[in-house]
Amino acid sequence: xxxxxxxxxxxxxxxxxxxxxxxxxxxxxxxxxxxxxxxxxxxxxxxxxxxxxxxxxxxxxxxxxxxxxxxxxxxxxxxxxxxxxxxxxxxxxxxxxxxxxxxxxxxxxxxxxxxxxxxxxxxxxxxxxxxxxxxxxxxxxxxxxxxxxxxxxxxxxxxxxxxxxxxxxxxxxxxxxxxxxxxxxxxxxxxxxxxxxxxxxxxxxxxxxxxxxxxxxxxxxxxxxxxxxxxxxxxxxxxxxxxxxxxxxxxxxxxxxxxxxxxx
Length: 264
Fold this sequence. Notes:
Layout: E1 8-19, E2 22-33, E3 37-41, H1 48-56, E4 63-68, E5 71-72, H2 78-85, E6 88-91, H3 103-114, H4 119-132, H5 148-159, E7 166-170, H6 178-195, E8 198-202, H7 206-212, E9 215-220, E10 225-230, H8 232-238, H9 242-249, H10 256-263
Parallel strand pairs: 3-8, 3-9, 6-7, 7-8
Antiparallel strand pairs: 1-2, 1-4, 4-5, 9-10
Helix pairs in contact: 3-5, 4-5, 8-9
């Protein structure tokens, strides 16, 4: 079954974001389907991270809606947002682990905040999540004792603590060597296949995009919105927009003078 034949779990309608008079994007419309890995790409400043923060509920849009199972995240009160956050997991570029806490204590935080589980059950969940990300035995380590890739995996374990329906990742592979980045890609694939977790990922790493993405959205700073949507290989092979071709083929777009030359 194609991803588009599944039910949408998140629907974004006519979304706009502004900072003062600066329009980041407007008229953004798309759906996130159950069980898909949706990757958001685009040049710096196009609004990728802003879009992610709005979808998470950390930032209010200028206008528009983000519907999760019919509930508008953009206008939800704090109680509704807390219920929503129990169904999502988030990993920002820095990993955002608390340095003064052990890995166990970091993963324990959402379980203590949002559940009434007893200590033995929480301990079992922590061990299970660390096992899923190949960090068994690192419960009592602090983030400073881990490599960059291990910190990201620990962050994923914490994001998955509540068995969320949707995971949001911002530049998951940023700052990592190619081998470690590839290991994270494999973890993403394994998690999606084993649990059917929906994922929304902001990245610019082409190798990762081709490997993990079911579908790609491309934002553009000048267009202030989405300029391409589709499967990554289809966008690479069939795109006619020079901005899209430039991204997926890693080619410098032709200048207007060059375009006139080739047309003539």
